[in-house]
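User: Before I run my own analysis I want an independent prediction to cross-check against. Here's the chain; please return only the structure tokens and, at the end, one sentence I can use as a sanity check.
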Amino acid sequence: MEQVEVWQGRHGDPVPLLGPLPGVRQDDTLAYEFGIPSRLVPWPGRSGLMRVFVLLDLGEFADAIEGGQLDAGTAVDGLRRWQRFLDRHLHAARDPSGQWTDFPPRRLRDLAALPAPLGPVVTMPD
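Assistant: Structure tokens:
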């Protein structure tokens, strides 16, 4: 596992990005955390700390390439990693069996089981 910093937001969105947020990357899966705004009340038994799990979003990936914010080399690397994910977790050993392979990936459980917080808590603005 690798400690990383994450910025939350959408490509081309005029709303400023939130971050850096503490995160952990394991292979092709990312988990990061942030605090919910004080105006929101967590469900009973839940904390105000949100942990998010991310796999590559191809729509945002394409937008970043088209917008010139992702160079070709990085894009090629990302596409190859995404294909490895698909081959490993969705396509592996599927024929002739009709059962799912390792999906969702077991490492999501590993990342979910990490003690919170992953690092200093950054809270979303109200």
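Sanity check: The beta strands are 2-8, 18-26, 29-35, 49-54.
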